[in-house]
Design brief:
By secondary structure, the protein is α+β, with helices and mostly antiparallel strands. The chain contains 6 helices and 8 strands, in the order E-H-E-E-E-H-E-H-E-E-E-H-H-H. This is Lactoylglutathione lyase family protein.
Length: 158
């Protein structure tokens, strides 16, 4: 069993992020927690990714969607290395190994039995604290992670 694991978001890969964002805001009244342009997170746990960006981040190239690889369920774990070892020991089909995303978060992805993508990632507060311990300044961390400065500062002073 993967230690310290919690469902954080259900992610939809969408063809037009602005149109989808308006739909979920205006029709359902969902409140945006964070808007990074190609990635939008709502307070209820739903997240949207611009499809072409998401598939490129995950697969490393422009990848046409096929059954299952355009929906992702996202979990966070404070023990990303242990989670990776657990998945490897269970013979789960891997989308990609543990790696660092462009924004500094370490993640890996696997397929569930129906080929839906299941992502496991470090919580962003842990990423920010790790970068700070490694000597990065607040400005460097904010630029790398694209996290709003006020949220990043709250994490560092906590």
């Amino acid at each position: 069993m993967i230690p310290d694991c919690r469902l954080t978001a259900f992610v939809l890969f969408v063809s037009n992020i602005e149109r989808s964002k308006r739909f979920y805001q205006n029709l359902l009244g969902l409140e945006i927690e964070m808007d990074l342009g190609v990635n939008v997170g709502f307070r209820n746990g739903l997240a949207l990714w611009q499809k072409d960006f998401a598939l490129n981040v995950i697969h490393g190239k422009q990848t046409p969607p096929v059954k299952g690889n355009d929906i992702e369920i996202y979990f966070e774990t404070g023990s990303i290395e242990d989670a990776w070892e657990t998945v490897c020991s269970q013979g789960v089909e891997v989308v990609h190994e543990l790696r660092e995303q462009p924004w500094g978060q370490r993640v890996f992805r696997v397929y569930d039995p129906d080929r839906f993508i299941v992502e496991f990632g470090e919580p962003m507060p842990a990423v920010i604290l790790r970068m700070h311990r490694e000597g990065m300044t607040e400005e460097e961390i904010a630029k790398k992670t694209t996290m709003p400065a006020e949220i990043m500062h709250q994490i560092l002073v906590a």
